[in-house]
Amino acid sequence: MDSPPPTTEQSSTDCCQGHQTDPPGPQSSTDDTNIQQNTTNGNDKGQRDSPPPTTEQKGRNAGNCSADICQGDQTDPPGPQSSTDDTNSQQNTTNERDKGQMDFSSSKTEQGSNAGDCAANRCQGDQMKGSQSLTDDTNSQENTTNGRDKGQMDISPPTTEQKGINAGNCSADICQGDQTDPPGPQSSTDDTNSQQNTTNGRDKGQMDSPPPTTEQSSTDCCQGDQTNFPATQSSTDDTNSQQNTTNAGKDNRQMDFSSFETERGSNAGDCAANRCQGDQMKGSQSLTDDTNSQENTTNEINLESFLKDLGLEQHYRKKLSLQNILQIDKKTIDDEPAKCKSHLPWHFLKKLMMVNVTARNVKYDSDKNSNDDGMSENTELDFNDLFDVANSEDMVNPLDVITALFLCSDGFVQQQMALKMSMCQFPVPLLLPSCDSQQCTLMLWAMRDIVKQYRPEALSESKDFTEERIVLSNLPMVSFVRLGECSLSKSETLNKLLSNSQQYHNIFVHHNMECGDSPRRISNGLTEITWYLPCGNKNIDIFSQPVAVANLRGDIESFETQYAFLCQASAAVFVFLDKLDDLSRLSKKQHHQTQIFLVGNIGDKFPDVTFLNQVTKTLGLTKNNLLFKKNQENYANFIKRLREAVSKVISKTERKMSIEQMANIAHELRIWVDEDFPECQTAKQHADAITAEIQDTLTFKEEQLPLQGQIWKELTSLEKEEFRLQKLGSENIEKRKSDLKEKIDTLRQNQNSKDFSNAMKSFITALSLPQIERNYFLKWMQIYLDDVSRIKLSELRDLYEEKRKSSENKEEIKQLDQQLTNSSLGTEHFFREMGQMYEASRFLPETDPSRQQLKYLPELCAQLLMDGFPFELVDGDASNIPLQWVSDVLSQLNEIVSPKNKILVVTVLGVQSTGKSTLLNTMFGVQFAVSCGRCTRGAFMLLIKVHEEFKTVLNCDFIVIIDTEGLKSLEGAQLNKNRDYDNKLATLVVGMSNITITNLATENLTEMKDILQIVLHAFLRVREIDKKPKCIFVHQNVSSAAAHEKNTQAQDHLLKLLNELTQTIAQTDQKECKSFSDIMEYNPNTGNFFIPGLWNGNPPMAPVNVGYSEAVYELKKSLIQPMENVDFGAYSICKFQSCLKILWDAIKHENLLLSFRDSLETVAHNRLRTEFEDWDNKFINEVKQWITDAETKISNRKSNNLTKSETKKLVKALKKTATIMLSDGERKILDNLTQYFSQTEGLVHLVTGYRENYEKKVKKDRQGLEKLVNTRLQMAEDIALKRYYRQNYV
């Protein structure tokens, strides 16, 4: 980023010093492999900004290179020396030559510069001692051919003068290397390796390495060939060498980069440089050592060649942006597998953005498949290829794809990739190798967006949890590295270490995964990090405390910087190795007081106990620090011992560090930090200036964002009353409207009288920065504000839990509820304040300076929409739309994109916390807020570009996604929002949409009946909307494969219900609609999608369920398809703007019977009341008739000659009969109610809440009738007895 690459002189000096102190000793093949890989990676490192050196500088630097090679060999200690020592020297020499080489427009004066370096390395290669097999020669020659092909980008031969200069320098280095070469036998492989490295050297120096002067070339030449010893070489070696030389010539111009024309002669120099480097390898080596060494020498391809294979070469400088990878194109809905290497990055990104855990399966189908039909015709079976092993070298390692994409992406794409990888439980890059040098980068910015929730052991009883941004979490880190060869797969062992036996997950890529055995070409030196986070269940948790786990790819011998970083940042480092002899090298390294554990597979080998004691003393190790898998030991038992060791480290260590704090270590070690570049730091300073003043979010909003507070809510209420005049009373209409307008003007004047707050001044100033700085500023603001809100919400939740334990704190609990709702603070609040500032300024004269000062704000927000930032349509706190502000922003957006202004609008509706935002994030790769203790409030729109070639298919230029607040939210209840707000929101977003996704938590449709009624009524009542959107139902958390078939009956019932609702509402509104399809486009067979749960296991360690990602992908394909012969196609931004205004005015004018559901309840209640009155009246009439008959019977007692006692007895009997009759009548009505409410039709479900009231009414009516019966019978008895008295006693 900012660190300048060292000069060539510095490079050479470092090279010599490193060679002098390299201790003698045997070296494993893996060491050689990794070193050579890093030699290649080092070649291209500094190539970003450094200008090419002048001719004079070239000459001086070339001389220094040759001199350093000689110095390195002269100080070589006597005795046997491993190949790694020489290779390290060669590596550093080569690395430093190529720093600053990214300037492809270098002049012709550089053409001969590198020939001198070629010979320098040739002499080093020819000094290789010890016997080697013929197979080594063959592999070496194969790699020679490959090397020649790689760097020969249509390079023309140098001029005669340049040839002479370069030849001199070559000879000079040859003799320097041979002077110190002791005599001895040399195998044919040595010569072959010499040829091999010659070829690779040609590739390596072909950027901008400075040439030596002619004088230096001649001087070096005089010292050459004095001690060069002949070597015996087999005829096979010569033949292979000639063959590969021929192939190299034929393929010389296969990579036609015209920009390299001027460098034709310059690249020949470094060819020979690497030849001599490779040939100086000393000591005895096994066949595996040579093979791996040769393979990695072959892989010394410059980064650009590899990126060209992946189709990413143009993105190394012009980085991939989110707009590039999120745009809608043919690949979005293309299910074709990758056919070549250039398809792999896009397949990976496509799946990763949809959090698909199969994203790392980067195998491609080449055209080399055999013809099965031809084989079937053969009468004889051919078993020649039955036991062949597939060549993994043709495949690409997933780590290389990931590394390449991180290198070719801007900071925002890196951040999005890291977030999605974390959700998939993939490790994310901690130290990213630059591949073209020994430099690496701490990926702090890339991990800034990762937020984790977990429950450590201390919170398991309280059921509380910790939510933190992972780069700020102080956690112990345990690192795993490799020294030399190791038969244990480090990454596979880590996967077993971090996974439960019941649920294994491939966290780290390892050899036994698909393409995991492919040679790593650019990802050696990559350090990955993941986190183990407990859930609070001791039966599930592997570790009771959170821990970070780092994994270094490659041999630590080749990556000293990364190893030093891990030693300083880790609580413990676990070193995997097989050869205990390698421990002598480990003892020479600085470990910074970190614990070292040795892990290996000793098998049947018995280690040298004396040597082991000596080394472990030097390293300060005890027996507990040695974890060797014994012969035939159960692997599960070995993992158990490893877990115990890690657990002890976690529980006892005091070394805990956040990734943010690790940046200090990175700076000390001269490791780049990805957020250290000026644009990011400038943006951070602007964000710090605003957020540093926030002590309490509620207080900050009141003081710094005053226009969106109580004033805005009062304006909302006045605007609503202005349209509806619900409080008119007997007042004159015109006077009422005039009074309301006057109050609105007064409030706007109040807003304009307030000075711009310091926070808003700083915010608007930062938005005026250049685009890259502005985007970083907004991201920093989002990060800081989320952190502040998270801390505040955590404090309030803790206080709420404490207060709710006592029933005496009801008022305090109510206040805490309100604070929890209002304490969130995000960038949307700053944009909301901008909108209010702009709307208030429209009430000022046009010439007013304040109005002129703010008139550019809509254009600014329109540009942010183009950059991929969401824009608030509906203010969820005030339940209102700042219509002038939103309209002007949309107008500016239309001006920016015109004439390409057709949009397709997709909206999601659903009950709160049903995963609406997560669904959109997964489907389109965007990042609507889904955490931070707050849900979506209001409605937000986001713009996604459609690729030019796909616009004619999709018939639109952009897709607009609208994410909405959850309906029936608890927050809405706390804010005293009634159903009116849900109705308005649903009406608005559905009315503006081409496609409406109704999100359901399960396959049960009951919960959404109210919402469906809202939508239906909205479309019927708002007459101005001339649209028929498509309706899709998404049933989440449905894992059954037969869900669709099982719910066929439910879907038919739903459609019947929808049709019934449509007819009912149409009758109420006097509209002519007979079915749901008259209002919305809905097909029950294709309009239902069943999506399984999001997580595959128990969070926080559960990855995203691949079934979820695949189901969402199918939903996405159903949305993004050719819009032919459909009437819900795209429309212009202007029409979208007009539709918004029409809808909002209609919503404000009409009460829409608001709540929509009330009108249906009225219909349903009228039906129930009618039925009940029929039952009740019939019962009452029956009772009244019975009373009349009873009175008649009593009054006729004279004719029956009844005595007084007999009369009383008759009345008593009648009362008893009446009681039985009333009970029967009551029971009959209750039975009728039960039968009525058990119906599934007739909107009965809307009035189930009235059932209790009607049951009470039946009982009350019965009591009233019983009282009436008793009264009337008593009156009849009294009259009869009076008559009896008069007749008998008067």
TrEMBL record:
InterPro entries the record matches: G_VLIG_dom (IPR030383), GVIN1_dom (IPR058641), P-loop_NTPase (IPR027417), URGCP (IPR057365), VLIG_GTPase (IPR052986)
Compositionally skewed regions (Low complexity) per UniProt: 30-44, 81-94, 186-200, 232-247
Name assigned to this protein: Up-regulator of cell proliferation-like
Compositional bias annotation for Polar residues: 8-20, 103-114, 129-146, 214-231, 282-299
Domain VLIG-type G, chain residue ranges per copy: 900-1144
Gene Ontology MF term list: GTP binding; GTPase activity
Family: Belongs to the TRAFAC class dynamin-like GTPase superfamily. Very large inducible GTPase (VLIG) family.
PANTHER family given in the database record: GTP-BINDING, UP-REGULATOR OF CELL PROLIFERATION-LIKE
Signal peptide: none
Short name of any one Pfam family annotated for the protein: URGCP_GTPase
Region: Disordered, residue numbers: 1-299
